[in-house]
């Protein structure tokens, strides 16, 4: 019984393989078979487009389109543009700290002036 099932399963596999191979078509691109039956399955050699045609088509397309040139792109960048870009974040942080420190100094100065003027007013009231 086991030989019958093995034989039937192998025949089923063979029929599946035959169906798959019948679905696939052989195409020979760079190989030229010696067998006469396979020579009909070769593909025609590929032809490359000449460089002159490619270049002329690109040039014609470029001539037909108006050229819009951005002057910022053409102008060379300064030698230190990358340094400015990298330092910009640090400068923003430093600017915030500077503004805070200046505001605190102004508050302290105003507080000191207010204390002096308040102290002078109290002395004037005591003298009366």
Uncertain runs are none
Per DSSP, the total helix count is 4
Q: Give the DSSP E fraction (strand runs of 2 or more residues).
A: under 5%
**What is the 3D form?**
elongated
Quaternary structure state of the chains depicted? single chain
Largest sheet: none
Can you describe this structure?
By secondary structure, this protein is an all-alpha fold. It is 68% helix and 0% strand. It contains four helices and no strands. The chain starts with a helix and ends with a helix. The mean pLDDT is 76.
Task: Indicate the topology.
Layout (H helix, E strand, L loop, with lengths): L1 H22 L27 H14 L6 H4 L6 H47 L1
How would you concisely characterize the structure shown here?
By secondary structure, the chain is mostly helical. Helix content is 68%, strand content 0%.
Describe this protein with a few key phrases.
mainly alpha
């Amino acid at each position: 019984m086991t030989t019958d099932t093995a034989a039937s399963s192998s025949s089923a596999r063979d029929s599946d393989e035959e169906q798959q191979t019948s679905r696939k078509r052989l195409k020979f691109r760079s190989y030229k078979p010696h067998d006469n039956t396979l020579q009909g399955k070769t593909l025609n050699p590929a032809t490359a487009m000449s460089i002159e045609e490619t270049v002329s088509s690109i040039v014609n397309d470029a001539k037909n389109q108006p050229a819009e040139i951005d002057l910022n792109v053409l102008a060379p960048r300064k030698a230190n543009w990358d340094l400015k870009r990298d330092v910009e974040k640090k400068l923003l942080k430093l600017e915030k700290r500077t503004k805070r420190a200046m505001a605190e100094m102004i508050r302290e100065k105003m507080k000191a002036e207010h204390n002096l003027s308040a102290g002078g007013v109290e002395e004037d009231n005591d003298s009366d």
